Amino acid sequence: MHNVGVIFKKQLKDTLKNKTVLIQFIMFPAMTLLMENAVKIPDMPELFFTKLFSVMFLGMAPITSAAAIISEEKEKNTLRVLTMANVKAWEYLLGVGLYVWTLCVAGAGIMATGLPASDIPFYLGIMAAGLVISVVIGACIGVFSANQMSATSLFVPVMMVFSFSPMLAMFNDKIEKVARIFYTQQLRVLMNQMSFEGIKTESILILIVNAVLAVVLFFVAFRKKGLE
Amino acid sequence: MINAKDICKSFSDKQVLSGIDLDIKPGMIFGLLGPSGAGKTTLIKIITGQTGFDSGEVSVFGKSVKDLTGDDKKQIGIMMDDHGVYDRLSVADNLKIFCDIYGIPYSGIGKALEEVGLSDSAKKPAAKLSKGMLARLKLARVFMVSPKILFLDEPTSGLDPMTMKYIHRLILDRKDSGCTVFLTTHNMEEAAVLCDDVALLNEGKIVDRGAPSEICRRYNHQKKINIHLKTGEEISFPHGAESAEKISSLIAQGKVETIHSSEPTLETVFIELTGRKLEAEEEIRYA
């Protein structure tokens, strides 16, 4: 576990100087605070921007940052230096995953500041669970890609599907029917209910299937490509 | 320290290494010489456990390379040509990562940077370093852990002569402190200066091996002494008592400008053995 901490620390230091990744963690929390305080439209659902941006943040930031970090290390051969220094593949991936997840949870914490105090545990709970799935998807893309360019060409469509489908589903029933199979849409539904009592079995099942699929795909990618 | 027996390796249907035998003693600088594509980097990767091999045996520290533990690997320093650094982090922060991994106090960073002459650049982002400075940072990274074996893959490739000499000095210092060095290069002059023992690798096979001076003597077919006279005339004498008298006489008369034996260089030996050039080939490749 020592090396997991080393990777976490390295990423924290690097992020302060990596604007591309840093903006992923800051953009949606900052936009949420801004829009919730600046935009007041009559009949607009309560906490509209918080819920909308939370799901977009969930489907965007962890996927792009995890994929970008891993693919950059592969491209520049710094990952090989780490493995030669006896950092195991699982230690590296867990270090990066924990780092991305922690920063995203911190971002969710900022977005939760507009919620009633009683809703915050539920909100953070479902965000934390959804972020795990997104981090695994991002890691899967990072492991599969040989360099940053191929990672970008993969994570852009994936990220757009997961982050934008819940928003589009609000305006179009056909899209909603397709989007409901995605974990981001189910998390959006849960966010509207904002209570543990109202959770439907269907939502839980879809979340589990999404999580299992992400993990299976990750192991397939890792088996095929490793960290080479 | 490092032993290899009958190593064979192929990628798809291409045989990259064939029947490689090595026996590298502790404290020596061993040079693996050959042109690009000869299989030098692949051999380092095999010996350091970064890549597998089809047949043969490799042992490091008396253990099969497959059985090396984490602690064994911590005693091996590897500087590969393509290994990167963290561009956005400072020189010191790059080294701090490896201090954390190896459990070395940060106080070792200053010493390592001083050794490679990068003390003044400790706070500089790695992205702003020149190629020579980057090479020295990579060396500092491997020196910091005080390895017992050092693998250096083309450590001076593309560097200016001053930086090259600086790095040669660092490598010789490491040897003096008891470190075993495994060096790959296509620079024959570098090999002659640094190496106690060399192997000439061509198309995946070792075509000859030995001390650089011994190899050159072995291929000294001409056995002549070449004299350049002050008049501009070039004269060659075969080895023998009769020649000795004539040469002695020329020296006594003050006619001799320079005098050389006809021993070949490692470069000419390589050409004789393989029909290929080393550095010239590189120059064409990068032209």
Q: Which characteristics define this entry?
A:
heterodimer, A: 228 residues, mainly alpha, 0% strand, globular, B: 287 residues, alpha/beta, Rossmann fold, 2 domains, six-stranded mixed β-sheet, four-stranded antiparallel β-sheet, 11 helices, 37% helix, disordered C terminus
Profile the largest sheet of chain B: 6 strands, mixed
- Measured distance between first and last alpha carbons of chain A: 22 Å
Helix content of chain B: 25-40%
Low-confidence stretches of chain B: 280-287
Cα-based radius of gyration of chain A, to the nearest Å: 18 Å
Q: Could you give a short account of the major beta sheet of chain A?
A: none
Mean pLDDT of chain B: 86
Strand order of the largest sheet of chain B: 6-7-8-3-9-10
Shape, principal axes of CA atoms of chain B: globular
Q: What share of the residues of chain A does DSSP label as strand, in percent?
A: under 5%
Which structural class is indicated by helix and strand composition of chain A? mainly alpha
SSE pattern of chain A, N- to C-terminal: HHHHHHHHHH
Provide a compact summary of the structure.
The complex is a heterodimer of chains A (228) and B (287). Chain A is 80% helix and 0% strand.
